[in-house]
Amino acid sequence: MTVIYVRDSKSRGYLRLGVESDGKKQDFNISESEYREIGSPKTQDNLTRDSFDALFTADMRYRARLKALHILSYGDNSERMLARKLKIAGINSDIISEVVREMLSLGYINSRRQIEKLVLNEVNLHNVGPLKIIPKLVAKGYLKFEISDVIDELSARGEIDFEESKARLIESRLGTDAEDGEIKKLLYQNGYFVC
C-alpha cells in the first residue's frame, strides 16, 4: 500500500490521500491530526496495515459526518432517526454512534425543541389530541417520556390548550348543532380522551 499523493481537501482541516493497493487507487479524506497520528506519510511512502486501517476508519468517519450533515440539512431528525438513516447508508454502527454524539454536542440535534415545534403544530394548527400526537412522534424516533414532558410543559406555559383545540375541532368539522355521539367519535378519531 503506497501513498500516491497528499493534497489539501475541500474541507478545512482535512487532507486527501491517494493510496494504491494491488493496482487499485483509493481516495481518502483524513483530518490533519489523524494524519499526524498515522505518521504523516509522504508521497511514495508505504503504509503499514494498521496505518491503512486507521486511514480507512478516519475516512469513514469523515463520510459519515458529511452524510449526517446532509440528512440534517433537509430537516430536523431525532437521534434515533439520524442513526437509522446513517445505518441505511451503510455506515458502521460504531462510527454512527460517534457521529450522532458529535452532532448532539454541536447542537445540530435538539430533540426537545423539535418535539415542541411538532406538538405546537399538531395542537394549534390541526387540533389533534395527545392520544394521536404521542404515537406519531414515537414513530418518528422521539422518546415517549420526553414527548409527555414537553406536552405538560407547553400546557403549563399556556402555549397549548387541549380544551380550546377540541372546541375548534368540533366547530370546524361538525358545526354547533352536532349530536353527542358524533362529537365523541370525532374527538376519539383525533386523539382526545372520551368519557
CATH superfamily of the largest domain: Winged helix-like DNA-binding domain superfamily/Winged helix DNA-binding domain
CATH architecture of the largest domain: Orthogonal Bundle
What is the total number of structural domains?
Answer: 2
Q: Strand order, biggest sheet?
A: 1-2-3
The average pLDDT is 90
- The backbone outline, from C-alpha atoms, is rod-shaped
| Share of residues in strands | 5-15%
Number of helices: 9
Q: Please trace the helix and strand order, writing H or E for each element.
A: EEEHHHHHHHHH
Blueprint of the fold:
Elements: E1 2-8, E2 14-21, E3 24-31, H1 32-37, H2 49-73, H3 79-88, H4 93-105, H5 111-126, H6 130-139, H7 144-157, H8 162-174, H9 180-189
Antiparallel strand pairs: 1-2, 2-3
What is the gist of this entry?
With 195 residues, this protein is mainly α.
List keywords for this structure.
195 residues, Arc Repressor Mutant, subunit A, 2 domains, three-stranded antiparallel β-sheet, 9 helices
Task: Please explain how this structure is put together.
The protein is mainly α. The chain folds into 2 domains: about 1-105, Arc Repressor Mutant, subunit A (Orthogonal Bundle), CATH 1.10.10.10; about 110-190. It has 9 helices and 3 strands, in the order E-E-E-H-H-H-H-H-H-H-H-H. The chain has helices at about 30-35, 50-75, 80-90, 95-105, 110-125, 130-140, 145-155, 160-175, 180-190; strands spanning about 1-10, 15-20, 25-30. Strands 1-2-3 form a 3-stranded antiparallel β-sheet. Helix 8 (about 160-175) crosses helix 9 (about 180-190). The longest helix has 25 residues, at about 50-75.
